């Protein structure tokens, strides 16, 4: 894997949760995936049988990824063999997110969220 070396003096991460990754060093493949139901209700009610992802089309539809047909020419010129960073501060990493310090060959990330708002009927 070609690339430059990353030198970091200090990394401070307060929280890494929900299938997230703090990766220090090179990796061949990073693949993140997250699904979430975000329900906002006017009244605090929980029915007990909620949260079935298969009930919502957004979680099963194929992603509309268009093929890349353009010819891409790329040249790299590394003036220095390393990237020097003094300090990295991260408050939080969540929902299959990745903080990565290093080189990666392949990256694929996907997040699907269904937002639902349920309001009480207006009084007549």
From TrEMBL:
InterPro entries for the chain: Spore_germ_GerPE (IPR024496)
Pfam families xref list: GerPE
Source organism superkingdom: Bacteria
The protein's name in its UniProt record: Spore gernimation protein
